[in-house]
Specification:
By secondary structure, this protein is α+β, with helices and mostly antiparallel strands. Helices cover 15% and strands 32% of the residues. The chain has eleven helices and 39 strands. The strands form nine sheets. Strands 6, 31, 32, 33, 34, 35, 36 and 39 form an eight-stranded mixed sheet that branches. Strands 7, 8, 9, 10, 11, 15 and 17 form a seven-stranded antiparallel sheet that branches. The chain is globular. About 1% of the residues have low confidence.
């Protein structure tokens, strides 16, 4: 008891027939409810009570004749994705996602190849964490290989550094007319200024200058996700103030913010694309750089999703602009793709800069990721800007200017204005136009918005794109007036294709199925499908075959024999009353070397398979443990098993686990092989009779949730 040096208490139970108590230890006697009270000896007026409910244990299930059968096998070791050593990342930092079977209580530290990794924080995505060790670049890559090879790891990759996608600032031009008139924005404002239904646009960048007079009344409460205190300039890590405090800042974030939604028609400074947009400023960069881990958390928060340790976002964004990126393929940054998927599923439209390296945009992230609108840059002549990335991953083009020519003019420091050039400047033009479109039509989806922008864009020729084909500049330069006007007319005939999954990894010689959804507007004719970009010598097939009359088809993708990353473009077209309606979607296919079989010394002989009966799950779990497991006598890397005479009534089912005591110490510990039967990654409960209940054995690590750990957590003896 607080407030006294005498902490001695007396214990009592309101009903000894239900529950007894001895020195704080409560024992259930019979079903019912009792109140346990602790009272101070020094001051009997002070006490504390707790209500205890005692349940009758469920009766054991009656004998039965049910059967559960399947196979037990040893997991194959798959080939690992390599990391380009030239791509920038934070030395000693790794992003790790664990498999569902991992015990999350044991993840604060990881021991890998004798090196201790300290958990920095959980990321917003499920079972995904940022780890750090004091390592140089080479040792980080060496450690990464060991980490990727662990059976409890779903993926691991470096904490890549992403950068603001703007080229160095040259002469400034105080005139915005060239880049706004290039996309017919004044005509769009005659239709919609963004005031009908103000849209929240998040700008994930280097922060904002909140005191800029041309942003007065435009900013919502944002957040600072930049976590490196050494160069943040504000003396702390994450906080609720997204102000740009970077030493020597070039106000990149404020420039992007002003393009999206600077106060307009106010006799001051510059105009924003959307007059009515509300800006959600989010800082994830400092000095033009930031980490993938910070950007992924910022993206999820912007969309209204929870991030550990961060106050909930009261103003989820409907449009998110990310004028940032880095030279790493999205297939090598699955944590970023996962964050994009989750933000997109929450309803956000995500616009990203294509990158400024004059290379294929698919080699950059997030430009090469799925689920984003990737924007390249044009100059004042209407051609692809000299620096702008290109390729089949480009969706649209927008004005970005040239470093030594006309630039995009917007807000800089407090009360200051100036020009910048880059795909960073192009992306917010598209984000702002989408905000106008959603203001006009609040129900606008990402797919519909992108479709309209593509249909109304002005294509670039091969000469204008400075590439063999103008298609490497996407659908072309956006036309804001035409896009807004399209919302005023009845829906045109349109076609939308979507693939699920839109990214997958296959072993050489393997194949996979992808569901292709077909959405038609104002027509019902069959859609002819074709695929390009697939591995050499492979031919994808459709079932039902092309042309497809229904709303979906299953596409089979062969991997072929050449490892690598491929961007497959699935095109669809239909002929409707003399008009051709077209659409496409992309699939990222990564082909790796096939798995290698375990060493001959590894075999399933001696594996014990347990069938623990689940009698009740709530309000408390009640089990009938299996003390006579099935033992596998067969050698090899897999073997069948079967368990007979299982109860079929009086229980919820059986939880099935398999264990091989490799080190022969009688304990499920590091060095052994273990596996649960799972469905969709979760430990499953199986009722007899059931077949094909297959269990995969994987090496036990400190993080593995073994049967012994599970039973201990439930208060049961393991043996």
């Amino acid at each position: 008891m607080s407030g006294t040096s005498n902490t001695t208490v007396t214990w009592s139970s309101s009903d000894l027939a239900v529950a007894s108590v001895n020195n704080g230890v409560v024992r259930g006697m019979s079903a019912g409810v009792a109140t346990i009270t602790a009272r101070s000896v020094a001051d009997t007026s002070k006490s504390a009570s707790v209500e205890v409910t005692v349940l009758e244990p469920p009766s054991p299930p009656p004998p039965g004749n049910g059967v559960i059968s399947g196979t037990v096998s040893i997991a194959l070791q798959t080939s690992l994705q390599s990391v380009d050593p030239s791509v920038p990342f934070v030395d000693g930092e790794l992003i790790v996602k664990f498999k569902p079977q991992v015990s999350l209580q044991s993840l604060n530290r990881l021991s890998v190849s004798g090196i201790e990794l300290q958990q920095v924080r959980p990321l917003g995505m499920e079972r995904t964490y940022l780890y750090r060790a004091n390592l140089n670049r080479a040792d980080t890559l060496t450690l990464l290989q060991s980490l990727q090879n662990r059976s409890d790891v779903e993926y691991a990759h470096p904490n890549y550094i992403l950068s603001a996608q703007a080229t160095p600032n040259d002469p400034q031009y105080p005139n915005q007319r060239w880049h706004y008139e290039a996309i017919n924005l004044p005509g769009a404002w005659e239709i919609e200024t963004g005031a009908s239904n103000p849209v929240t646009v998040a700008v994930i960048d280097g922060g904002v200058v909140a005191g800029h007079p041309d942003l007065a009344g435009k900013l919502l409460s944002g957040y600072d996700f930049y976590s490196n205190t050494a160069d943040a300039g504000d003396g702390d890590g994450r906080d609720s103030n997204p102000e740009d405090t970077s030493p020597g800042t070039d106000y990149h974030g404020n420039h992007v913010t002003g393009t999206v939604g600077a106060a307009t028609n106010n006799n001051l400074g510059v105009a924003g694309v959307s007059w009515g947009a509300k800006i959600l400023p989010i800082r994830a960069l400092s000095g033009g750089n930031g980490t993938l881990a910070d950007v992924a958390d910022a993206l999820r928060w912007a969309a209204g999703l929870n991030v550990a340790g961060v106050t909930a976002n009261a103003n989820p964004a409907r449009v998110i602009n990310m004028s940032l990126g880095g030279p790493v393929a999205c297939t090598n940054a699955p944590a970023l793709q996962q964050a994009i998927n989750e933000a997109s599923n929450a309803g956000a439209i995500i616009v990203v800069a294509a990158g400024n390296s004059n290379v294929d945009a698919s080699t950059f992230s997030p430009a090469g990721c799925s689920g984003v609108i990737t924007v390249g840059a044009t100059n004042a002549a209407g051609n692809r800007a000299s620096y702008s990335n290109y390729g089949t991953r480009i969706d649209l083009m927008a004005p970005g200017g040239e470093p030594a020519g006309q630039q995009v003019v917007s807000t800089l420091g407090s009360g200051q204005y100036g020009g910048k050039a880059g795909t960073s400047m192009a992306a917010p033009h598209v984000a702002g136009v989408l905000a106008l479109m959603k203001s006009k039509k609040p129900a606008l989806t990402a797919a519909e918005g992108l479709s309209i922008l593509k249909e109304t864009a002005r294509p670039l020729s091969a000469t204008q794109c400075n590439r063999p084909s103008g298609s490497e500049c996407g659908a072309g330069l956006i036309d804001a007036q035409a896009a807004l006007a399209r919302l005023n007319t009845p829906p045109p005939r349109s076609l939308v294709l979507s693939a699920s999954p839109n990214a997958l990894t296959l072993n050489t010689g393997a194949s996979a199925s992808v569901t292709l959804s077909i959405s038609r507007t104002n027509f019902s004719e069959p859609v002819a499908l074709s695929v390009s970009g697939q591995p050499s010598g492979t031919t994808p097939s459709f079932n039902p075959a092309s042309p497809v009359t229904g709303n979906s088809t299953t596409m089979t993708l062969p991997a072929g024999s050449a490892p690598g990353t491929y961007t497959l473009v699935v095109s669809g077209s239909a002929s409707v009353s003399g008009q051709t309606v077209q659409a496409e979607t992309r699939i990222t296919l990564t082909v790796v070397q096939p798995p290698t079989t375990p060493p001959p010394a590894q075999n399933v002989q001696g594996t014990r398979i347990y069938f623990d009966a689940v009698l009740r799950e709530s309000p408390t779990l009640s089990l009938l443990l299996d003390f006579n497991p099935v033992v596998i006598n067969q050698t090899g890397t897999q073997a069948p098993y079967s368990r007979n005479q299982l109860s079929t009534t009086g229980l919820l089912g059986y939880r099935i686990s398999a264990w091989k005591d490799v080190n022969n110490n009688g304990t499920q510990d590091v060095g052994d092989l273990f596996g649960w039967y799972r469905t969709n990654g979760n430990i499953a409960t199986v009722m007899p009779s059931a077949s094909n209940i297959n269990v995969v054995l994987e090496p036990v690590l400190s993080t593995t949730l073994t049967r012994e750990k599970w039973l201990k957590q439930m208060g049961y003896p393991a043996r």
